[in-house]
User: Fold these one by one.
Assistant:
Number 1:
Amino acid sequence: MANEVIFHSIHQPESWKLSSYLATGGYEMLKKVVTEKVPPEEIINQVKISALRGRGGAGFPTGLKWSFMPRHFQGDKYLVCNTDEGEPGTFKDRDIIRFNPHQLIEGMAIAAYTMGVKVGYNYIHGEIWEAYERFEEALEEARAAGFLGDNLFGTDFCFNLHAHQGYGAYVCGEETALLESIEGKKGQPRFKPPFPASFGLYGKPTTINNTETFASIPYIIRHGGQKFLELGKPNNGGTKIFSVSGHVNKPGNFEIGMGTPFAELLEMAGGVRSGHKLKAVIPGGSSVPVVPAEIMMDLTMDYDSIAKAGSMLGAGSVIVMDETVCMVKALERLSYFYFEESCGQCTPCREGTGWLYRVIHRIEHGQGRAEDLDLLANVTSNISGRTICALGDAAAMPVQGMLKHYRNEFEYHVEHKKCMV
Amino acid sequence: MLSPESLAKIDKEIAKYPAGQKQSAVMAALRIAQDELGWLSSDTLEFVAGYLGMAPVAVYEVASFYNMYELAPVGKYKITVCTNLSCTLMGADSISAHLKSRLGIGFGETTADGRFTLKEGECMGACGDGPLFLVNNKRMCGCLSSEKVDQILAELK
Ligand SMILES: Cc1cc2nc3c(=O)[nH]c(=O)nc-3n(C[C@H](O)[C@H](O)[C@H](O)COP(=O)(O)O)c2cc1C
Ligand code: SF4
């Protein structure tokens, strides 16, 4: 079941070329839905059956999101793909556009047909220039072959797709900041509501999905929602790409069924680097609470299992840490990240991320005070739920997770002015 | 101010967006200008503003919000090292130390000959290849060891 949906041809030479994609039946599903005029309700229904949940981190059901688009709205509407991955530990979307860009394009075109959209953008993380260029080449190929553009397959269906490059701002991964950024502004998140489905890009109805979400669509159309669902487990359909980094022998991306035991994924990544043992795992990117080894080894990799353990699957970004890691130092680096990347619009986030970083920094550097642990807890509860976007929560959750499971390491630092590991 | 090639590239970017939304091309225009000139002076920002029909202050806001734009001169080669958690677990500290001692500068500094600027960066979305750095915002070099760093530095004349 590995590499069933997205990375099926990843080991072929030049898998990113149109000819390679066509050889695996590429663009057949787009042609089918457009020329046979498959009713959009039927497509949305299959996506609902598939239990595909947004792969960008929040896990929102994709079929439901698509049904929010005002399908009969006559003015402009937009489709946006979020390839801005910049959450520490996440690197799957880069490989999708490097190795299988046409499947993303086909998925977006099917989505555009379904929601009656004529123009789309793919927002690509600034630092992955080579991947951006490759995606631009794939767009050119698709246009020349008649898979993007006007009156596709001789019908009245038109879909034009463009790439937009980010330039170094994590917050632009947040969907409304991303829209502001495409509009040529600072990437500051908008208040919601209104939601993008009614007021999105240029104020028009807009649907935003993650790269991996869109790239899953051609498979669902070809094999039906039920088959996709069965690759995973109920309420957690499909395969998922897990990005494994940190203290493993073979870091990389692994596409496996949802619900696969963590222990198996760890083995695929070559296990913990030799001579060391697993201490903890951050299972869903830097924004989610850490999970200690003994709990993690019993979990399966899906939204529901990880949530039961008090953390989140996020974008499936697995950061593996062995016994040499000092949790205070690890958290100091993460807290610096949120402090640096806060857009500064909301006081609890702007001030709170600064406080978190400064307090953890002083604990790490032997200047912590006995009351600092309570102070940290206090600051996090002042941020949670009081900000415009979820970056505030994303800054608070790793702190709460670390204090819950590794409080003793923080206490030791405060008391002994040094590290216990 | 900008070469005809750069202007042609900017025009291609403008064409991606609906009529009347030229401002959407500002990020690309700044990137293209920086690629040609090395950094973004206030004259460059004003030129871009005029070209896209934007207020100069709106262009400045964008240029200062996104980390990859340079509002002051940098060396011929800007090396941005990711020091976030995954890369640190995979050895970014020793790569940073090696770069600093080889170049004789710290983060945020430029060598006296103007060849290299060293910067600390945030997650580049390529953690599986860590430790890694980015040269001039474009060329990503991953799976670094001290030897590999030396090799790359030797290529950057
Ligand atoms: C601070 C922040 C950063 C985010 N970064 C990303 C990202 O890099 N990629 C992404 O797809 N979603 C990201 N998201 C989630 C998006 O806001 C949005 O939920 C997602 O793109 C929707 O697509 P999906 O339903 O297919 O997951 C981020 C959210 C926040 C609050
Ligand atoms: S929570 Fe932070 S990043 Fe999000 S809008 Fe508020 S200040 Fe900006």
Number 2:
Amino acid sequence: MYRIRFHGRGGQGMKTASRILGTAFFLEGFEVQDAQRYGAERRGAPIFAYVRASREPIKERGIIQRPDLVIVADDTLLLIDAPGVLKGMTPQSVLLLNSEEEPKMWKDRLNFSGAVFALPDVQDLKEPTEQLHIGTVCAAAGARFVGVISQKTLKQAIQDELDILGNQIVEENLEQALRVYDLMEAYAGKIKPSSEPAVADYPDPAWIEMPYEDARISAPAIHAAATSLKNPTGLWRTLRPVIDYDRCHRCSSICSTFCPENAISVNENGYPQIDYQHCKGCLLCMEQCPHHAIESSLEHTKTLESDKGDEI
Amino acid sequence: MTRRLLTGNAAAAWGARLAEVDYVPAFPITPQTEIIETIAHWMDQGEMAGRFTTLESEHSMITAAGSAAATGTRVFTATSSQGLLYGMEMLYTVAGWRAPFVLMNVSRGLSSPITLEPDHNDILAARDSGFLQIHCATCQEVLDSVLLAFRLAEDDSVRLPVIVNQDGFYLSYTREPVEIPDIEEVRKFLPAFDPENTQFRAGEPRSQGVAVLGGAFYSYFRYEMHLACLNTLSVFDSIAQDFADHFGRKYGILETYQMDDAEFCFVMAGSFATKAKNAVDLLRDAGWKIGLVRPRLIRPFPADALCRALTGIHGVAVIDQNLSMGKGGILYTELASALYSSNSNSPLLVSYIGGLGGRDITREEFFKMARETRHAVETGKVPLPRLLYTEDELRQMRKLQTIAHAPWG
Ligand code: SF4
Ligand code: SF4
């Protein structure tokens, strides 16, 4: 069976990627399962989708425990724990990244024992969330890596899945996808279907006896205010608001009032300060500032620049 | 006939479309909403005939479904979890009207705490309502079960509404290859609904769902529902055979897998049983004689079929994706009662609770359940019911509690 997982951000088309690859496998005569993992997702939030394909009926369900191939559409996801990009990967697994950095850098940095490859330069745009066809490109790369999906089938699958978006979008996607498919010819068949380990090779699950705990502890309640501060929703951001303090008139209320996340505080000198741990990048503050003192910049570049092992 | 990739939700919508339903009362809820969106889209595009109405709640939706079915139209509707519970009063009521229609439930764990992913406490909360229950394990089965359900619901000897259940996420949002039968073939299998004496229309005054004061009258009506529900067990096979003759897929009241020479087996309902099949394959590779029994019908409860299927089995791991507070696994309880009243040499049962709120059940857990069940047979010591829960999961729970400032100690 082939087990492939796509990681990206809401809006990058990871569900579409899994559907294109799923349809392509299906058209090649495979049994298929594809699904997106839904949660409280939104644009920019880490999401993943997956595909299983086999010549035999598939007797698995739900998330993939041990992926053969993981395709990552935004490399900043590798810097944070929450998306679980490396979850279940083995030395036989392959990691394929949409990244400007060298695969070797990621391999060392992640201390990952399997092979790491990079997608060829997709577009001139460096910001993954601005790459309009990245989902389709990831699907095309996946199709190439498994080596059992012809160019004709890939084309058909893209047409089938994107049909409702209209001709022009289909054509643009086809162009990008087929270019990447051709560029990656050397990788054809790098991913082989893997078989399951035998019963004896699985560790015993560490079951516990569920202890009784009284309702003060075991009722689903939160016993304090503002615990959502511990959830760094800043990692959902694809665009970053930046305040130009030379232009800020310290009106001291407009941007901070409009921020739906309460992520702007005003310091004692009357200057607004953005809490990037929690700012989701909606840019309402930018819209509202009467003095145009807030600008947006691309988060991806900022994250990789500022990241020296720190959290974003 | 075409074979294509469909989610469980799309398969449900296709079932309704092929059944050529007249009326779809609807109310959205995750993870079911895609079903009614798909049907609404088809009706809007003129690809599907019939009437689509959005109601203001599931309570009204089920009332509308039952009322429409009472007029002799074919009705399909869908809900999930809290929605099913919100409509619970009317579930009992419309079943009592003996109004036959099909309700798709997309399983989702119940509040509190609120969640999105599946377990069977929602559907099993409706188990005493008079609705029949069909539990699906694949997207194909979802489509096929809708067609089977209309035949069962409309059968003269049954005349009760049916809930078809599919698991949220694991089926609802998962695409698999599904054969979509040709409409001509479906029409042969499922002709237009002939309501005969349940027809209820303007200009022909009748009363339905009347009040009866006096327990003896009441008992009569309620027990008749019970008998009608039980009748399903005798008509199921011939309807399923008819289905197989038309579409080539044979459904039993139970699905049995690798049971011929089995000494041990898993018993469980729903789509997680797919995982159990994989575990059975791997255990057989390792020399085990083990199989799987999956009841498709939960109401009526297929007691005889289960007793027959488990004859000669030494030990059974019963995996309940539900939890009856203060009792335990519902499937385990019902299976035990079925075996207790049978004459056969009953197998030993070990009870597991797993998959609550969509919690995964891993291969190694299936293996361990098999080992524990064998050990129980060898020693005669049956372990206490167990929740599938690991050390690491409790550690994660502790982290959450720390964030939530749980008052330790
Ligand atoms: S709204 Fe603009 S001017 Fe006012 S405090 Fe915010 S950044 Fe400064
Ligand atoms: S971008 Fe949105 S979330 Fe971030 S600081 Fe501005 S208003 Fe708040």
